[in-house]
Specification:
Blueprint: H1 27-30, H2 33-39, E1 44-48, E2 54-59, E3 62-65, E4 68-69, E5 82-87, E6 90-96, E7 106-108, H3 110-113, H4 119-137, E8 149-151, E9 156-158, E10 165-166, E11 171-179, E12 188-193, E13 205-208, H5 215-227, E14 232-242, E15 247-255, E16 271-276, H6 277-285, E17 289-290, E18 293-294, H7 301-311
Parallel strand pairs: 1-6, 11-15
Antiparallel strand pairs: 1-4, 2-3, 2-7, 5-6, 8-9, 9-10, 11-13, 12-16, 14-15, 17-18
Helix pairs in contact: 6-7
Length: 313
């Protein structure tokens, strides 16, 4: 159930898959060189390849990350390792590795495995992918172009040329479920697809927040630009990190007239359609797909929002 009573606006049932976390983000620990050196030999290490994948064990019902010991890299923290956090006296780290050959293990990314991981593993892998992606793109100072080096256990980069310190960057984006005006939660949802997506895949609308723009204004603008609709009743639902490569998705819902004409953004939106709640429920019962329509999986906030709306009403 989604937690909404009959006649009330729908809400999400629990946190989105990649918003779950249990490990403490200890900012003080990042600067505590002595403690990091002392606890490094007993730490756990997560390996992430250049496709954002980690090695996992388990089946399709539940997956678990496969960690190795940090001590294999030596007695002290290595420069290319990033600290993810600490839990129950154990520090968790991550490193970038080459894409694996056939090592007998199963490697998967967050899109596939995010919803199948427990809260601890989901939070660790999401942080690792986001942080390593930032390091891949932040090797040079944005002011003077000098090569930078890692500081604060991987949570900052320092420029030796001009002294500038840079921190991990996150790009905010809104994602919004638009429903019609029939009742509190509507009876139809607007689903759209981009031309580059796999056949039959549809989702709700999303776009990046521009400089000087509020989240609510971004919702209104993006929907008008992408499908030509004027929305009202913009309402916040939840947020989820989406490190592909470094986004933070902020989930909303809004209302629009189903009778207004749709004007699709050329090159961005290939198709958009109003879909009845019963059809969405049928899609979800069939694992996210029926002939003609596939909706996002539960690793994404889009899938979480669509499922919550479908259960309402």
């Amino acid at each position: 159930m989604n937690g909404a009573r009959a006649g009330e606006p729908f809400q999400l049932a629990g946190a989105p898959a990649l918003s779950r976390s249990t490990v403490a983000r200890d900012e003080v620990l990042r600067d505590d060189t002595e403690r990091l050196q002392r606890e490094w030999p007993t730490g756990r290490l997560l390996r992430i390849d250049h496709h954002g994948r980690a090695r996992m064990a388990g089946d399709h019902g539940e997956l678990a990350l496969t960690y190795s010991g940090t001590a294999e890299f030596g007695p002290e923290p290595v420069e290319h390792a990033v600290l993810l956090g600490e839990q129950d006296g154990t520090c968790y780290w991550a490193v970038r590795v080459e894409s694996p050959d056939d090592d007998g293990g199963d490697w998967a990314d967050l899109r596939i495995a995010g919803a199948l991981l427990n809260d601890t593993d989901a939070g660790l892998m999401t942080s690792a992918v986001a942080l390593l992606n930032w390091h891949d793109a932040a090797g040079f100072c944005a002011v003077c172009g000098t090569p930078t080096h890692r500081e604060k256990a991987g949570w900052a980069r320092q420029c030796p040329g001009c002294g500038r310190e840079e921190y991990p960057r996150t790009d905010p984006a809104v994602i919004c479920l638009v429903h019609d005006e029939e009742g509190v939660n509507g009876e139809h949802v607007l689903l759209a697809r981009q031309p580059v997506w796999p056949p039959e895949r549809y989702s709700i609308l999303a776009g990046f927040v521009e400089a000087g723009e509020s989240l609510e204004a971004c919702v209104v603008r993006e929907i008008a630009e992408e499908v030509g609709l004027t929305v009202h009743g913009v309402r916040y639902l939840a947020s989820q990190p989406w490190p592909f490569p470094r986004s933070l998705m902020l989930g909303f819902t809004a209302v629009a007239s189903r009778h207004a004409p749709l004007r699709l953004a050329d090159g961005e939106i290939e198709d958009a359609r109003w879909v009845h709640r019963d059809e969405v429920r049928a899609v979800l019962r069939e694992g996210g797909r029926v002939p003609g329509v596939r909706v996002p999986g539960m690793s994404s906030i889009a899938g979480k929002i669509v499922a919550a709306w479908a259960q309402a009403g």
